[in-house]
Amino acid sequence: MRPFEAATASPGDPWLNIAIFGAFVAITMIIVFRASRNNKTASDYYAAGRSFTGGQNGSAIAGDYLSAASFLGIVGAIAVTGYDGFLYSIGFLVAWLVALLLVAELLRNTGRFTMADVLSFRLSQRPVRIAAATTTLVVCFFYLLAQMAGAGGLVSLLLGIGDEVGQALVITVVGALMILYVLIGGMKGTTWVQIIKAGLLIAGAAVMTVWVLAVNGFNLSTLLDNAVATAGNPAILDPGLKYGVSEIAKLDFLSLGLALVLGTAALPHVLMRFYTVPTAKEARKSVVWAIWLIGIFYVFTLVLGYGAAALIGPETIAAAPGGANSAAPLLAFELGGPVLLGLIAAIAFATILAVVAGLTITAAASFAHDIYASVVKKGKPEAGAEVKVARRTVVVIGVIAIIGGIGANGQNVAFLVALAFAVAASANLPTIVYSLFWRRFTTRGALWSMYGGLVSAILLIALSPVVSGTPTSMLPGADFDIVPLSNPGIISIPLAFLLGWLGTVLDTRREDPAKQSEMEVRSLTGVGAEKATSH
Amino acid sequence: MGNDARSANTTEPVVDYRAIQQSPEFQTLRRTHRNFVFPVIGACLLWYIAYVLLAGYAHDFMSTPVFGSVNVAILLGLAQVVTTFAVTTWYVRFANSRLDPLAEEIRDSIELDAAAASDAEVNR
Fold first, then answer.
1. Can you tell me the distance from the alpha carbon of A251 to that of A244, in angstroms, rounded to the nearest whole number?
2. Residue A533 touches partner B, C-beta closer than 8 Å
């Protein structure tokens, strides 16, 4: 299933695909240039001057969140492994309730640019900020890798480029474009790319969904029957095809479910989006918009996944270049020929571009704001230096993303993203919840929880079958899979909560109660929250 | 940085957050907020975990066809989507009608006090 080894013939017309994607790039580039005229201060560059409305930000959140993993990965997972793929959709959606009810507004009221702003608010600045920046960078890296892994498979399928050099070249072009967007456009440009992409993605998925339903007489039951008939396996309608084979697989599935539902509200690039609106009320509105758009989209994925199973068949999909990730593009070709494939292909590339841009600006902001300005320069960087550092970091991260993308193999991208969720839920969520809701929480608790969650999650992944021991592992030759679970969440998330509690209880130092009062009052009332900058 | 946000805004007068935190108005806001979000998120997570456990361990039940080939698993999955939409709408209504007025009142009184204090500063 590795794209490099697979057949390379594209079912569509590569030049048409390139032309449609080129048009997308040209249009968004113009918008980014126009939007980025006044990108001077850190607030402009990281938070788009806090000038977006709830509706705009909600669409951008959908654009940021509905990654290649959601579109290609979930449709492919449903097409190949049946109902088990749909569980990703449900977890990814329900997770937004945690963000809505517990995190979004309180975070908007207390922070400025990054997750670390909130976590270090009432604790010791230096150590907590360094820890939060570390977890931010690691989660962004995992997520980046997942997105770029999708790019490789997509290239071989859509552009008919089979050799490694050609694929590497295309990934480099995509990465270079992303760097350009983020360098010029900052958060404002990134946001516009995400809004446009969200509109295209949801519209494209809607068209295909209606089309699939029309082919099946607008009857969900008929669609399912056809999927069963083509697949030759009635089990694709039931849970358990992938995760029901053994007791370990079932536990793995529970672990995955936990990571999905608790990871979203701890993803740094999602959290950062809440700073782009002027008030907590707009942050709330953003989440509501995002939940509706994302929820509707995930219902589409159910139809598209079973549609791909019905019209193409799981075996054909699994054997195609790009493997399961090719289900959505193949379905587009089956329905609308080369033109629809070209459109969907362009949308898929735009998706990767927009999500990678969002991750890159988040990682760059965290490095420049948390590490450089706050820790290295002790909160007093020279004027303009912070944004300069952020821009340089963008280039570095862009290069890392390109190299990662070239090196990444054809694993299902939904699965790789799930690992990023597990790391986020373990390393970040306990500290976010404790610092917002637990008065007694201390620096030691935060450090134990963040480092403990991060290290345990990564260690468990490293020792799992994902990395070694099976033919589909990253290192198929090696064999050190001591931990049978593929997803670490069920161990590392409770562990991180426990460590946060334990560290706090064992901490002899008490935090400044005045800071706790200030944080609680500000988080709930919005007093002293960062205002929008007017242009 | 929490204090960074403050230092960026050096004209902001010092507010006695501890007194506000202990005021009955703020305690009401805090209680109203917590009494809503904690039980609701708890119930939603339980409902979700129950669904995941059913999908993992109750294959026969989940595979029961309800109408045509549409089975319990698909209906429960769609039910999760529906409850997510419903809770979202419920929370927004609650926040708009119950939380926002309380928060606004406290915010206005703090900002009014602060403005009065800085006026006094100027007139001195």
1. 9
2. no
Whether A99 contacts A418, CB under 8 Å: no
Distance between first and last Cα of chain B: 33
End-to-end CA distance of chain A: 51
Total CB pairs under 8 A between chain A and B: 185
In this structure, what DSSP letter does residue A111 have? -
**Residues with Cβ < 8 Å from A180, sequence gap 6 or more?**
A29
Nearest to A239 among B5, B55, B88 (CB): B55
User: To the nearest whole number, what is the mean pLDDT of chain A?
Assistant: 87
From the list B2, B85, B91, the residue facing A515 with the nearest CB is: B2
Option in A129, A437, A524 nearest B29 (CB): A524
Range 490-519 of A in CB contact (< 8 A) with B: 513-515, 517-519
Q: What is the DSSP letter of A524?
A: H
Residue A159: pLDDT band with limits 50, 70, 90: confident
* Cβ-contact A80, A327 below 8 angstroms: yes
At A189-210, the pLDDT tens digits run: 889 989 999 999 999 999 999 9
DSSP conformational letter for B66: E
The distance between the two most distant Cα atoms of chain B, rounded to a whole number of Å, is 81
Cβ-defined contact of B87 to A97 (cutoff 8 Å): yes
The verdict on a CB contact (< 8 Å) between B56 and A254 is yes
- The interface predicted TM-score of the complex, written ipTM, equals 0.90
**Number of helices and strands (H, E) in chain B?**
6, 2
What DSSP character marks residue A468? B
Q: Give pTM, 2 decimals.
A: 0.91
Residue B52 to residue A446: CA distance in whole angstroms: 30
Output phi, psi for B65, to 5 deg.
-70, 140
Top residue of B26, B34, B84 to mutate, by most chain A CBs within 10 Å, is: B84
Long-range (24+ apart) CB contacts under 8 A made by A212-215 are: A212/A303, A212/A304, A212/A307, A212/A310, A212/A311, A212/A331, A212/A335, A213/A303, A215/A307, A215/A311, A215/A335
For the segment B74-94, what is each residue's pLDDT rounded down to a tens digit?
Answer: 999 999 999 999 999 999 999
